[in-house]
Amino acid sequence: MSDHDQDFETPAPAELPHEDFRCGAVALLGRPNVGKSTLLNAMIGFRLSIVSPRPQTTRHRILGIATNEAGQILYVDTPGLHRGAKRAMNRSLNRAARSAIGEVELAVQVIESGRWTDEDQALYEALAEQKIPRLLAINKVDLAKDKSAMLPFVAGLMEQHSFDEVYYVSALKEKGLKELEQGILKRLPVRAPMYGEDEITDRSERFLAAEMVREQLMLRLDQELPYATTVEIEQFKDRDDGVAEIHAVIWVERDGQKAIVIGNGGQQLKAIGSAARRKMEQLFERKIYLRLWVKVREGWVDDESMLKKFGYTD
Ligand SMILES: Nc1nc2c(ncn2[C@@H]2O[C@H](COP(=O)(O)OP(=O)(O)O)[C@@H](O)[C@H]2O)c(=O)[nH]1
Ligand SMILES: [Mg+2]
């Protein structure tokens, strides 16, 4: 885990562990909600990238690192590309997804089993312009009641599209992941590892702490409200007693939203705080003291300079 004051770790110089050791970056791309973040977490064996049933849960590009004897894969999770990006926030999400494509050795397009939408097609066409190998991961195969119906779906898809290989996976049930991993590894260059073998991300604990709070907002708030919130870490301090003390501000757009986030008698905020704290304790492997505030900043979702302040710059 990286130091919480620094966003990017300097990779340790390393030698090739053996002559066929592979290392490289892979983008997980697809429309919102197909399961990219769940897949990243399953591939690295850590619940690093936040997941909720809502589209646009992922707002930042996030690197998840998986190292084994065969190689080191740097998975780049991205916000899903989506259309009609009117608000500044949505435009920022699209930029993050697009810039990831230019920085990787390989792309995995993730779709939902049995569905190929216009957005899937648009992403496919954007990827086809790149000179990197692309794999198709058909996710959520656990939901397909009739597995035999999948064959005509895939056959139809392959008639009109070319992928280097197709994989059937369930990120949730951890099915088909070894095969996908091998398909990725063999297409990566022979190269020394860029990160230490126990590192799981390039993101700071400070960043991840904000994400853990945001995950609870996505899970617990209704309708549009999660999209009007963001989280800023004002303090992240390791105390002498071994406890990490974290002060976080939940920003909302209006007073009415603030009241909802706090809830009757502070119930909602308390639930958000204790669930986020438990997740942090798992990920950071120490005791956490978390304090939350809710503050109003009108129009932050449409304001490029506020987005910068809140870290939406990638
Ligand atoms: N049944 C099933 N659900 C999945 C699978 N993978 C992801 N999901 C669910 O799909 C929703 C969106 O997942 P998420 O990883 O946030 O999607 P993303 O927007 O592409 O990153 C969540 O509710 C996940 O639990 C899967 O393999 N099977
Ligand atoms: Mg996601």
Key features?
single chain; 314 residues; Rossmann fold; 2 domains; six-stranded mixed beta sheet; 9 helices; 9 strands; binds guanosine-5'-diphosphate; binds magnesium ion
How would you briefly describe this protein structure?
The chain has nine helices and nine strands. It is an alpha/beta fold and 314 residues long. α6 crosses α8 (267-284).
CATH fold naming of the largest domain: Rossmann fold
Percentage beta strand: 15-25%
What is the first-to-last residue Cα distance?
21 Å
Q: List cofactors, ions and other ligands.
A: guanosine-5'-diphosphate, magnesium ion
Order of helices and strands: EHEEHEHEHEHHEEHHEH
- Mean pLDDT over the full residue set: 89
How do the strands of the widest beta sheet line up side by side?
Answer: 2-3-1-4-5-6
CATH superfamily of the largest domain: P-loop containing nucleotide triphosphate hydrolases
Number of strands: 9
Radius of gyration over all CA atoms, rounded = 20 Å
Classify the oligomer.
single chain
From the spread of the alpha carbons, the general shape counts as globular
Low-pLDDT runs of 5+ residues are: 1-7
Count of DSSP H/I helices = 9
Secondary structure category:
alpha/beta
Largest sheet: 6 strands, mixed
CATH architecture of the largest domain: 3-Layer(aba) Sandwich
The structural domain count equals: 2
